[in-house]
Amino acid sequence: MFKFNLEKTEGKARAWIFETEHGNIETPIFMPVGTKATVKWIIKEELDEMGAEIILNNTYHLYLRPWDELIKNFWWLHTFQNYHKPILTDSWGFQVFSLGNIKRPISESSPNINQNLVKITEDGVHFRSIIDGSKHFFSPEKVMDIQSNLGADIIMAFDECAPWDSSEEYAKKAMIRTHNWLERCHKEWEINEKKRQKEWQHKQALFWIIQGWIYDNLRQESAQFVSSLDLPWIAIGGLSVWESKEDMYRSIEVVEKFLPENKPRYLMGVGTPEDLIEWIARGIDMFDCVLPTRIGRHGSAFWTYGNIKIKNEIHKLSDKALDEVCDCKVCKNYSRWYLRHLMMENEILWLRLLSYHNLYFLINLTKKARKAIKEWNFEVMRSDFWKKYKIN
Amino acid sequence: MFKFNLEKTEGKARAWIFETEHGNIETPIFMPVGTKATVKWIIKEELDEMGAEIILNNTYHLYLRPWDELIKNFWWLHTFQNYHKPILTDSWGFQVFSLGNIKRPISESSPNINQNLVKITEDGVHFRSIIDGSKHFFSPEKVMDIQSNLGADIIMAFDECAPWDSSEEYAKKAMIRTHNWLERCHKEWEINEKKRQKEWQHKQALFWIIQGWIYDNLRQESAQFVSSLDLPWIAIGGLSVWESKEDMYRSIEVVEKFLPENKPRYLMGVGTPEDLIEWIARGIDMFDCVLPTRIGRHGSAFWTYGNIKIKNEIHKLSDKALDEVCDCKVCKNYSRWYLRHLMMENEILWLRLLSYHNLYFLINLTKKARKAIKEWNFEVMRSDFWKKYKIN
C-alpha cells in the first residue's frame, strides 16, 4: 500500500523513500511530536521550513479530548490541525509511562498499586481518565478503531511496555500479551482498512512493535515473532524510558540480526543527537522524541558542541548565535543574550524560539545523515560529529 | 529630519507617509506594543506578514533590565531584537499606571500612599524598581539619555499622567510640570542629537505629549502650549486609562481645533477597532495598544461582527474561521474548534495564534482606512464597519 524504495546504504546505515498519500518521507528522519494535535508553539509553516516530513499525534490524549469520533466527523487529523503531510498516531502503550504520577501494577498478582488508574488484563486495559477520572477500556480492537477514526497515515499496534522494575517473568508475560494483541490489532486493522478504502479512499499502514524490556532473550523472541509476520514496518518500543544507556543500546543491538533488511525500522522515543547518529549507523530509519520542546522549556538547546543552557551568566553579553554553525532562523536572527533576556523576563517567545531551534537541529541532523549516506560519506560525518560533540 | 508627506485627506481623516531611516510609516497606522523588546509570542517575519511598519518598546522596563547601556553597546534596540523597521520608545509616564498594584500619591501634600514606590517632585520622579525594590531617579534629562541609548527612531517626552481621581487642581499641577519637563526634554534631546549624529549617524525624533486629564480647559491649555512649540509630532497622552468613554472622547475632541494641521498626531494607548475607526475619522494618525495580545491571552478575538470568545461552547463544533472575512494566516488555516481545543488543553499555541489574528485585525483595519481615504471612500468604509460591528 505504501511504496518503500531503499535508495542507498552505507554499512548498516540506510536511506529510504516511503511514498504515502500525503507525500514522501525520506529517511533517516526525525519526527516531531505533537501530542495533542499541536507540536508545541510551532505552526505548520515552520514545520515545513525546518524540513519536517511527518509528525506524531497521540491516540490516548485525542481520544479523551476532543474525542476521536469528532475528529473523524471533521475530516480527520490532517484537517483538524491543518497539517497535510504524513501523520503517525502513537498507540496507548507508552502513555502509561509518561503520564506523570501513574505507577502501574508491577504484576497481576499485586494489582493494588494504583489499580484504580490502570489495570491490565488479557483482553485489554482498564483505566481512568487523567482529566476527570472517568472509566475507560482499551482493547487492541478499540485502539485500532480509534486510530482509524483519527485517520493518520501510519498507526501503531497496541502494546504493553513492561515497567522499569519488571522481573523477567513479568516482562515475558507482557511480551506474550503484546504478541497476542498484535494479532488482534491486525485482524481489526484489516476490517477497518476494507471499510476505509471503500468509504473514504484513504489508506492507513500499521506498525508492529518489538517489546521484551531489557532482557536479551525476550527482545530476540519478540523480534523473531514480529519479523515472521508479513507486515511492512517494524518498531522497537519500550525503551528510552528508565533503563541505562548501556541496557538500551544492548537491547536494540541484540535484535538487529533478526530484523528483515527490507523493512523500515522505527526506534520509538529516541532521542538525543548522539543517539540519532549512533542509531542511524546501526540501521534505524525513523525516530521521535519530545526532547526538543521539553529541553527548550528548561532553557536548553542542542548545540554542535554538546548542549547550551541559555540561562548561564556566560551568555549574558554574548552576541553569538545559539549555535554558530546552525542555519535555522533562530540562529540566523537572534543572539544568545537576547534569548537569555526573553527567558529572564519570562517572555514565552523563548519557548517558541528554543523549541524551533531544537526541532530544526534534530531534523537537520537526520537530513545531513541522509545526504551523507547517499554520497557514501556517512562514516566521515559520524566521526566529524563526535570530534565536536561533547555529552554533558 | 524626518520627511512628512500628507498624501490625502477625506474630511478630517488623513493619509501620511513619514520617511525614517528605517523605512516608511504609512498612516493611519496601528503600532504593536513590544514592552520588553518583544511583541508577545510574535517574531519579526510575522510582524512583516501582518503589515506592521513600526513597533513600540518600553523605556522603563528596558532600563531596569537588561539595561539601556548594554543595549547601546550592542548596537541599539534594532539589533537587540532583530527588528530593522522603525521603533518608538515610550517614556516612563504611562507605566506609573500600568504597573499593577502601584498607587501613586494623589498630591504632593499626601505623599504617604506608597511613597516608597513613586515620589514625584519638580525635578523628576523617585521610584523603586518593580523587580528588586532598588531606588532610582528619572529626570526629564535622564529619560532622554536612556532613550538615546536605546536608539529608537522616535522617542517620547517625559510626562506625568495625572491619576484617575485627580482634582482639577492636581491635574493642573501635573500638566504644568509636564510642560516644564517638555522644555527640559527638548534641551537634552538637542544635546544628544548633536552627539548622536556626529558619532553614530543615527537620528531620533522627539514626540510631545498633551496632558490635562479629563478637564477640558486643561486639555486645551496643554494643546495650545504644545502646538506653539516648533516640534514635528504631537501625542495625546494620559487617556484610555480609567476614564469613561464619554470623558475620553470629549477630552480629545476639545483639543482638536488647537492641533496644527501639518503635524502627525498620535493617540497613546488606543485602542479597540471602534476607537480606531472613530479616531481616524477625527484626524488621528497613529495608535498603539496592548489589547491585541492582552485579550488574546483571555481567549478573545477581534471580529468583523464585534468580538469572539473562543472558549464559548458554541464554537466547540464550529469549523468556521475565527473571522470568516479575515485573510490572516490564522483565519485561513485554523477552525474555531481547533483554536478552542488548544485553549482547553492549555496548549499555548492559542496565545500565539489569537494574538497574531488580533494584531493583524487592527493593523489591517488601519490599512483599509488608509486605502479608503486615498480613494475618497473612508466614510463609506466607516458606515460599512458600523453596519456589521457590535460593541459587546
Show the helix and strand layout:
2 copies of one chain form a homodimer.
Chain A: E1 3-10, E2 13-20, E3 23-26, E4 29-32, H1 44-49, E5 55-58, H2 59-64, H3 68-73, H4 76-80, E6 87-90, H5 95-98, E7 118-120, E8 125-128, E9 135-138, H6 140-150, E10 154-156, H7 168-199, E11 205-210, H8 216-228, E12 233-236, H9 245-256, E13 265-267, H10 273-281, E14 286-289, H11 291-297, E15 300-303, E16 306-309, H12 329-333, H13 336-344, H14 349-374, H15 378-388
Parallel strand pairs in A: 4-14, 5-6, 6-10, 10-11, 11-12, 12-13, 13-14
Antiparallel strand pairs in A: 1-2, 2-3, 7-8, 8-9, 15-16
The amount of beta strand of chain A, in percent, is 15-25%
- CATH fold type of the domain at 3-103 and 143-298 in chain A: TIM Barrel
Arithmetic mean pLDDT of chain A: 90
Based on helices, strands and strand pairing, what is the structural class of chain A?
alpha/beta
Task: Give a brief rundown of this model.
2 copies of one chain form a homodimer. The first copy, chain A, has 392 residues and is of the alpha/beta class. Chain A has 15 helices and 16 strands.
